[in-house]
Structures are given as C-alpha cells and as structure tokens.
C-alpha cells in the first residue's frame, strides 16, 4: 500500500494505491489466513484515514483481487472474507466509483488464462462521498491488456475539480 496526501482545489486529498494478495491454485490455510489478516489491516487503516469530523477526500485505487458479492460470472474461489473486504470499503463510507456510474454494467478488468479461465472485476476505485459526487467517468480501458502490456485493463477515472453546481465557463480566444 502506497499513500500520498495532496492539497488540491477540493482541499486535502489522500490517494492510496493498493495491491492486495491474490488467490492461488495451491493455496494453503496459511495463505488464506495471511490474506485475511492483510485485508483486516487495510480496513483498519481506512478507518484512520477518514475519521468522523475530519474533512478530507480519499481515493483508494488498485488491484484488490476481490469482487462484489453479485459479480457475474459467480466465482467459487472467493470466500466470505473476500466479500467482507470489498464491502468494508463501502462500510468505511467509500463508493465503488465504477459501480456508482455504471450500475447495470457487467465489466471485467482481468481475464484469466491457464487454470484460471475466468473474468473478474478485481481492479477498483473507491472514493469518498465528495469525490464520488464529482466523478463523471469511470471505465476499464482494455488496450493495455489486449496489447499484452498487462494482464489487467486500465481503470480510467475522471473527477470534476469544480463543484457540480457551479457552471464551467469557457472562454474563446
């Protein structure tokens, strides 16, 4: 987990980049325990990032290696602790930006090969309420995956920096 704090026109913005441990075919109970411990530590850290009464925006972005509970297609490899991890971001007051802007779209960010012939939406952008209200675009760009630059699609996110209620004036030259 990497984190940076920035002063922006929106006030303080905390950006967290996160890679969470993935499942493996030969996973032992120790692997599961370590992944579950990691997930709990991340959720505890989230609570410290935005305690009640503190005015700051938070964005948590990255490959979380978990899916939402009603992900299609269903994924047998995900355990209750994985759904608890995904839902922990929601309980912390963050919003799944892709799901907020695309409530009925079943998209995937990772397409497995070999023994993992599956599709999963495991890359996420969780935003605090103020940022989520300003988000205007959040989609997966598949060019990096299709060109084999990565086995993941890129998550593209656009957030307005002016309040939605203030019209943006354009000037001609």
Give the proportion of residues in helices: 25-40%
What is the count of β-strands? 9
The number of helical segments is 5
Rg for CA atoms: 17 Å
H-E order: EEHEHEHEEEHEHE
Task: Output mean pLDDT.
Answer: 83
Terminal Cα span: 45 Å
Q: How many domains make up the 3D coordinates?
A: 1
Spatial ordering of strands, largest sheet = 1-2-3-7-4
CATH class: Alpha Beta
The percentage of residues in β strands lies in 25-35%
> What is the molecular shape?
globular
CATH names the topology as: Deoxyribonuclease I, Chain A
CATH superfamily: Endonuclease/exonuclease/phosphatase
Low-confidence stretches: none
Second CATH tier, the architecture = 4-Layer Sandwich
Structural class: alpha+beta
Biggest sheet layout: 5 strands, mixed
Q: What are the main properties of this structure?
A:
single chain; alpha+beta; globular; 173 residues; Deoxyribonuclease I, Chain A; 5-stranded mixed sheet
């Amino acid at each position: 987990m990497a984190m940076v704090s920035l002063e922006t026109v929106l006030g303080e913005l905390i950006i967290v980049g996160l890679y969470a441990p993935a499942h493996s075919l030969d996973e032992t109970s120790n692997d599961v325990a370590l992944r579950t411990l990691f997930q709990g530590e991340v959720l505890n850290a989230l609570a410290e990032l935005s305690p009640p009464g503190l005015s700051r925006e938070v964005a948590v972005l990255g490959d979380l290696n978990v899916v939402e509970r009603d992900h299609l297609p269903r994924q047998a490899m995900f355990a209750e602790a994985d759904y608890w991890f995904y839902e922990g971001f929601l309980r912390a007051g963050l919003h799944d930006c892709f799901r907020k802007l695309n409530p009925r779209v079943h998209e995937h960010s990772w397409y497995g090969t070999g023994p993992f012939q599956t599709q999963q939406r495991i890359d996420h952008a969780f935003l605090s309420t103020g940022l989520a209200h300003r988000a205007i675009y959040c989609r997966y760009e598949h060019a990096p995956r299709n060109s084999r630059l990565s086995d993941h699609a890129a998550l593209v996110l656009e957030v307005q920096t002016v309040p939605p209620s203030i019209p943006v004036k354009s000037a001609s030259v």
